[in-house]
Protein: TIGR00269 family protein
Organism: Syntrophorhabdus aromaticivorans
Amino acid sequence: MKCRVCGQEASIGLRAYNTALCADDFIFFLEKRVSATIRKYHLIETGDTPIVAVSGGKDSLSVWHILNRLGYPADGIYVDLGIGDYSRTSLAKITQMAEKLQRKVYTLHVRDIFERGIDEVARAIRRVPCSACGMIKRYVMNKVCIDRDYNVLVTGHNLDDEAAALLGNLLYWKDEYLWKKSPSLESRDGHLSKKVKPLFLCSEREMAAYAVLSGIDYIYEECPFSVDAKSLEYKGILNNLEESSPGTKLQFIKGYLKRMKVGKKNDEEERDMAYCDTCGYPCYGDKCNMCRLLERFHIEKGMDFDEYDGSSLDSTRPMVT
Ligand code: Q46
Ligand code: ZN
């Protein structure tokens, strides 16, 4: 199999595009697609200050790497869930990437705040770990954006993640989520930062290939609490369809995008949404879930973030209140 661009031995076959490419041309091809997605959907514009939500996995480290290569200087934010070796290894990979990019990374350690890991926090409030984790991450990442003047929060969701979620929403007609799968969710009133997904049109397989061919050192293990069997099942179904009809996932998501107005606001949600009396975070009611959680554990201190500037292994711990 020869590279369609240069004729050398190809490193990857892309059946959805009916082509094959060598490592260098594939890296160029993928970065160009991310760049086109950013421009087409106005994900990051001149003067924006993006920050990437990193987990140590291939998608988030790759999108961080790509943005900086494309000329969108971006820092990183990581929430250390306190899950033993998994969290330690993730942080090591993230620190390594921060050093490579010479960019800052903020880390919030769940154990510093709650004196326990995410599984114990979740158990205490009778939730599953992913539910407590999602809530804390959303809050913390938004807080860093607002407090530190980053106006765009970038995540590493890829085509397979989005197609699986869309399939699940369609199968069960979850109208409340159906039209929210946009590559860009607009900011709101200075309380909620804009959220964007530059890898929206890049498949899981392409991202794994990009990470390997670009020499990105990422954590291979999944979070031990990642038991979303449904999502894995949907990804399996879509992969089978992709196998017999290459390009199916891309068509599914592109068809969806055509039918929605990107970044459209849900008026009903806007009406019902209020702001937390304590911290100002958008919520339903007078107090947000994070403030309730801190209250539940009798925590009154602010959040300390480790701040690593990418140039040395020393970190300072400025207060973000
Ligand atoms: S990190 Fe958090 Fe995921 Fe782990 S606890 Fe669940 S939600 S699985 S993306
Ligand atoms: Zn609050």
About this structure: Residues 163 and 240 are 13 Å apart (CA to CA). The pocket of Fe4 H S5 (ligand 1) is lined by residues 118, 129-130, 133-134, 223, 225-226 (CB under 6 Å).
